[in-house]
Amino acid sequence: MAVGAILTVLVQSSSVLTSALTPLVGLGAVHLERVYPIVLGANLGTTVTGLLAALVSDASSIRVAVRLALSHLLFNFSGILLWYPWPPSRTIALSAAKTMGETVARYPWFAVVYLLLAFLILPLIVFALSLTGPAGLAAVGIPVILLLIFVGAVNFLQRKAPDCLPERLQNWEKSGIPKPLHSLAPYDKLFRRSCMRLCKRKASSKEKVLEAGRREQESNLKDFTVLKND
Predict the structure, then answer these.
(1) Taking Cα atoms as reference points, which of 11, 223, 190, 43 lies closest to residue 113?
(2) Whole-prediction pTM
(3) 20-74 pLDDT, tens per residue?
(4) What are the residue ranges in the chain where pLDDT is below 70?
(5) Residue 9: partners with Cβ closer than 8 Å, 6 or more residues away
(6) Which GO terms describe its cellular component (predicted)?
């Protein structure tokens, strides 16, 4: 973790470090378990930039700037305390990363969907709910969080101890829940069909352009032949 923090301070960017490590993990040159603390350290080291910028602020705004920088530091540090010291929490984070990698490897389009959901759509939804006040945010957020915990627990028990679950929950296929609610396969079929249609349209339009070009070339050649004979 200290290595990640120091390297991030030196290059002044955690994105550079994580972007350099990601392909190494994908190639199998470095184990995910070794990269995990380095990435956490990088998230801690990136707060140094904000602290340095806050310390050179104007006298009128230095207090607010330092507060913001310290908030950034404490937020990232609290994330490390939540996901690193306790072994089960490390297991959850690493398992989630592996599951995400396997999902994206099987459904490449899911990476774009995940980025849009995690960094655009969900923040906008949370922001809109926050405008309604704590009651509105809690009324929507608590059921969603409980549902996610329930689904995560069922998925875990399906892999580790399926006999502990009722028969209908031992397999999502037998649960009677519509497939689009527990599988990405229907969306993958829809995405592939859409891509195939788009590719066919582009191919047909390209063929039409080429055909028009050939006809124009033949017409020009005929005109040239007529003029030459005259």
Answers:
(1) 190
(2) 0.69
(3) 888 888 788 888 888 888 888 888 888 888 888 888 888 778 888 888 889 988 9
(4) 4, 203-213, 216-230
(5) 45, 48
(6) apical plasma membrane
Last residue of a domain, one of 168, 183, 198: 183
Name the domain boundary from 80, 106, 132.
106
The domain tally of the chain equals 3
Same domain, 41 and 11: yes
110 contact partners, CB below 8 Å, separation of at least 6: 103, 104, 184
Among residues 118, 91, 89, the alpha carbon closest in space to that of 104 is found at 118
Q: Is the distance from CB of 8 to CB of 42 less than 8 angstroms?
A: yes
pLDDT recorded at residue 120: 92
b/e code 17-45 from CB counts within 10 Å (16+ = b): bbeebeeebeeeeeebeebbbbbbbbbbb
Residue type, 169: L
- Euclidean distance between CA atoms 90 and 217, whole angstroms: 67
pLDDT on residue 169: 81
Between the CA atoms of 187, 193, 195 and 201, what dihedral angle is there, to the nearest 10 degrees?
-150
